[in-house]
């Protein structure tokens, strides 16, 4: 079976590369530089030409490059661009990072216009601004552009940079196009972890010109993608314990023997994802001087997960015996069986994201003047129902072992552990027997831009200038509802499956599994017999609305001579923010919730200057300065009672907004040296950058009394976003190298390579809740090193490519607040461990129309692993992600 998989993988890689060749040939007739002509060489040439012509520091990737990799989404393509990394979530790229700055620092646009994001407070690092790459199809763009410096005509929210997707149109080709592609394959896993699961992808792209003078052009594209996979996961808790000689918890990190885990959390996701897209572009060339483009789009992503959980929890008062450096026995106190408990849970989750919109652009040329108008409206919705059923048993004892970088819990009393009738339905709001919760998000963007430019085209020389302005209204609302029920008489024995599944590995044991058919029978019988309790406190604490209005005006001038280009300008942005939420008031034991509102405003002048000097016909040097801002997350600014987490009833956690947050203000300095090789077919570049960021934002957790409902106050952790007192700084270096080995003899001349890397150093001073000063060596989600290497072969019929991506240590943003409550808890900041991923592709052109193709993705089987600790030495979570192989065919007519 293993040998068969290897051969299938190799064959798949070959077939896919072939199909890429046909797809590339489908683009071989083009009239503009932005659209791919043929093959990897043309794709790289177009991206290099785009970089060469821009004033900003920019890198790009062309459509052919997207087509030739195993690109299930645009994130797979973006991570091939110099300085770009992606945050993976359950096997798919979710967010982009530019030079280590995460998606909250980045603006994402379609043809230069922003789109609404289905971002939610309950999602990974959610905040309302980051764009989910997994919602976009891989055929969305003719070119993806990553801008690392800013000019006055660009949105000021770009501390990290901006990503723009250039959408192709009918006039980008010399003749009408019709292209189809389809791929089928498997996610490859061991049978013990779910086995092989299917994955499929199909795309269509059509252009037509029409009208008496063919003045109209229509582009239509559609795509469908589906993936099934089993995702095993192991966690050992977001903190750790250390014990004294008597076996009692010292309550202090690094004092006593340890660290020991506080949980053994097994997750097993049975996950299915689908993505659908429709996009249309209507171009009208009304005259030689007037052109109008209208674009409509729909992107939908749906994810269904059945998650089986098995969680052994160790309370802070539990005792330990027979302790060694890596093992011991956890036991409850005689008077408190709840010190050690095990939960078995079924968790049904649905994530439904939709993004749709309409945008239009008109350009009018009057001599050396060019006038432009852009309008856009977009909407993003997010719907996330979650249903959980939980059973628990107290009073167990476990032997633990952490010697293999994971965590194994072995029950001391196997008979008690396997007594399914002893696992009874959960009680209370924090861990009920059955609950139903609903998250909903609705975001809307309305944008308008106007500009007038004189002598500012790429090839214009002499003096040029441009001025313009516009505005964008961003509205974002979220609501939450939860109800739960307890007291039903059945136990785990009544709903358990006769089979078990492995978690991360079978060596650590197998999970009890809840049979969904049996569970539904029990719910149908008993659910109507017990009262439904509505969690009012949680509903009001997570419901809010926020509106942000940004008004902008700018002006800039440029002087371009034979070898010099100098440009400078100024942008003014004024921002008004209004937010509404609910606040609870408790009197005489009764809590009422009333709407409250807040507002804020801020303005910033943002100067910028760029200079380019051609050292020779194939060498140039760039220098740039710009001031940009980083707006806070919408959820960080929103006025809301807070996101209340009662998973641990003894330690409630409340996350709430801060309407008084200031935006980050960054002064950015860049210098780069560029060599253009082989008449523009290859290139080498070296860039240095420095950023000084004031008002950096981080989550601060502190001890406070929290209303858990009904006026009951429990001491817990209150977390809110704050501005840092001192400036953060980042220094970095970036290299990029593209070279075709045409100097080699024979078949070797068909090889080439693409290498890029970034290294950065950050100082981020913060203060903890107790006033202790600390300095982090990275910003949230910022890897110090990112490396990409691709080696490719391009012959007449056969094309192949292998690509390696490395991402270094980086903080996991949503867990930073774990370590900011005190100096003692600083070790609890969670870090994502370095990751190495390899993708491969192979294609063979059967004839002028058909190309056979094979993709191999994540061939290293790389998952996501996290650690914590002052030296990152304590393992926290291990997530396995499968390899994927797809075989398909593409056609061009």
TrEMBL record:
Which keywords, in A-to-Z order, does the entry hold?
Cell outer membrane, Membrane, Receptor, Signal, TonB box
Where does the UniProt entry say this protein principally localizes?
membrane
- Pfam families of this UniProt entry? Plug (PF07715), TonB_dep_Rec_b-barrel (PF00593)
**TonB-dependent receptor-like beta-barrel domain: which residues?**
352-859
- Leader sequence range is 1-24
Q: Write down the InterPro entries for this protein, in alphabetical order.
A: Beta-barrel_TonB (IPR000531), Beta-barrel_TonB_sf (IPR036942), Plug_dom (IPR012910), Plug_dom_sf (IPR037066), TonB_rcpt_bac (IPR010104)
Q: Name one GO cellular component term.
A: cell outer membrane
> Where in the cell?
Cell outer membrane
Residue spans making up a coiled coil are none
Which superkingdom, per the lineage?
Bacteria
- Domain (TonB-dependent receptor plug) ranges: 51-161
Entry's family note:
Belongs to the TonB-dependent receptor family.
Q: What is this protein called?
A: TonB-dependent receptor
Q: What species was this sequence derived from? A: Caulobacter vibrioides (strain NA1000 / CB15N) (Caulobacter crescentus)
């Amino acid at each position: 079976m293993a040998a068969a998989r290897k051969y299938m993988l190799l064959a798949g890689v070959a077939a896919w590369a072939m199909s890429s060749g046909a797809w590339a040939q489908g683009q071989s007739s083009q009239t503009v530089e932005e659209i791919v002509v043929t093959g990897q060489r043309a794709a790289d040439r177009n991206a290099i030409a785009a970089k060469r012509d821009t004033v900003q520091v920019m890198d790009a990737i062309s459509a052919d490059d997207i087509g030739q990799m195993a690109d299930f989404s645009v994130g797979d393509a973006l991570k091939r661009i110099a300085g770009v990394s992606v945050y993976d979530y359950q096997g798919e790229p979710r967010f982009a990072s530019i030079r280590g700055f995460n998606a909250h620092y980045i603006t994402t646009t379609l043809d230069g216009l922003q789109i609404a994001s289905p971002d939610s407070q309950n999602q990974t690092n959610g905040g309302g601004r980051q764009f989910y790459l997994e919602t976009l199809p891989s055929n969305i763009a003719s070119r993806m552009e990553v801008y690392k410096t800013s000019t006055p005509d660009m949105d000021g929210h770009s501390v990290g940079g901006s990503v723009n997707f250039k959408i192709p149109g009918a006039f980008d080709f010399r003749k009408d196009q019709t292209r189809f592609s389809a791929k089928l394959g498997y996610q490859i896993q061991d049978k013990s972890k779910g086995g092989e699961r299917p994955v499929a992808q199909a795309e269509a792209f059509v252009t037509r010109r029409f009208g008496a003078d063919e003045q109209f052009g229509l582009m239509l594209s559609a795509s469908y993608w589906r993936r099934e996979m089993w995702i095993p996961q192991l966690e050992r808790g977001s903190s750790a314990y250390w014990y004294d000689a008597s076996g009692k918890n010292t309550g202090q990190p690094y004092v006593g023997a340890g660290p020991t885990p506080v949980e053994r959390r097994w997750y097993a996701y049975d996950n299915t994802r689908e993505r659908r897209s429709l996009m249309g572009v209507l171009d009208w060339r009304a005259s030689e001087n007037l052109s109008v483009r209208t674009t409509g789009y729909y992107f939908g992503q749906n994810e269904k997960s059945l998650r089986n959980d098995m969680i052994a929890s160790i309370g802070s008062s539990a005792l330990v015996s027979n302790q060694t450096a890596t093992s011991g026995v956890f036991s409850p106190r005689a008077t408190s069986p709840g010190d050690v408990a095990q939960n078995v849970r079924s968790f049904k989750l649905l994530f439904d994201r939709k993004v749709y919109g309409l945008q239009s652009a008109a350009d009018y040329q009057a001599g050396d003047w060019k006038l432009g108008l852009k309008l856009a409206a977009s909407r993003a919705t997010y719907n996330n129902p979650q249903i959980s059923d939980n059973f628990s048993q107290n009073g167990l004892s476990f032997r633990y072992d952490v010697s293999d970088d994971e965590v194994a819990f072995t029950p001391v009393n196997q008979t008690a552990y396997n007594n399914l009738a002893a696992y009874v339905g959960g009680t209370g709001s924090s861990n009920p027997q059955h609950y139903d919760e609903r998250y909903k998000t609705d975001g809307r963007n309305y944008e308008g831009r106007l500009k007038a430019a004189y002598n500012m085209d790429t090839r214009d020389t002499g003096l040029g200038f441009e001025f313009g302005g516009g505005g964008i209204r961003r509205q974002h609302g979220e609501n939450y509802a939860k109800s739960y029920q307890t007291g039903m008489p059945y136990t785990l024995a009544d709903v358990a499956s006769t089979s078990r599944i492995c978690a991360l590995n079978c060596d650590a044991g197998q999970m009890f599994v809840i049979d969904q058919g049996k569970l539904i029978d029990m719910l149908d019988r008993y659910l109507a017999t017990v009262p439904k309790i509505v969690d009012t406190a949680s509903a009001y604490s997570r419901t809010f609305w926020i509106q942000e209005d940004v008004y902008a005006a700018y002006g800039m001038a440029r002087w371009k001579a034979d070898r010099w280009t100098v440009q400078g300008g100024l942008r003014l942005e004024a921002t008004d923010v209004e937010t509404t939420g609910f606040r609870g008031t408790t009197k005489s034991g009764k809590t009422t919730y009333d709407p409250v509102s807040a507002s804020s405003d801020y303005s910033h002048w943002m100067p910028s200057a760029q200079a380019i000097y051609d050292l020779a016909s194939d060498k140039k040097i760039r220098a740039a300065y710009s001031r940009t801002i980083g707006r806070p997350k919408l959820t960080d600014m929103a006025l809301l009672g807070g996101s209340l987490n009662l998973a641990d009833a003894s330690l409630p956690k409340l996350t709430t907004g801060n309407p008084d947050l200031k935006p980050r203000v960054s002064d950015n300095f860049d210098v780069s040296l560029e060599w253009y090789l082989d008449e523009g077919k290859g290139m080498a570049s070296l860039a240095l950058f420095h950023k000084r960021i004031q008002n950096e934002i981080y989550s601060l957790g502190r001890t406070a009394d929290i209303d858990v409902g009904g006026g009951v106050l429990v001491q817990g952790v209150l977390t809110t976003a704050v501005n840092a007192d001192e400036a953060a700084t980042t220094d970095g270096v970036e290299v990029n190298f593209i070279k075709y080995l045409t100097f080699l003899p024979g078949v070797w001349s068909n090889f080439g390579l693409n290498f890029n890397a970034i290294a950065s150093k950050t100082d981020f001073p913060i203060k903890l809740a107790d006033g202790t000063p600390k300095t982090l060596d990275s910003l949230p989600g910022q890897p110090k090193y990112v490396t990409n290497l691709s080696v490719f072969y391009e012959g007449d019929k056969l094309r192949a490519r292998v690509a390696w991506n490395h991402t270094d240590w980086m903080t996991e943003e949503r867990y930073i607040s774990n370590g900011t409550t005190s100096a003692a808890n600083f070790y609890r900041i969670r870090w994502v461990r370095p990751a190495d991923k390899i993708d491969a592709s192979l294609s063979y052109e059967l004839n002028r129309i058909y190309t056979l193709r094979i993709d191999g993705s994540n061939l290293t089987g790389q998952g996501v692993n996290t650690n914590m600790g002052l030296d990152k030495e304590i393992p926290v979570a291990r997530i396995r992600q499968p390899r994927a192989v797809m075989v398909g065919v593409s056609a061009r007519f």
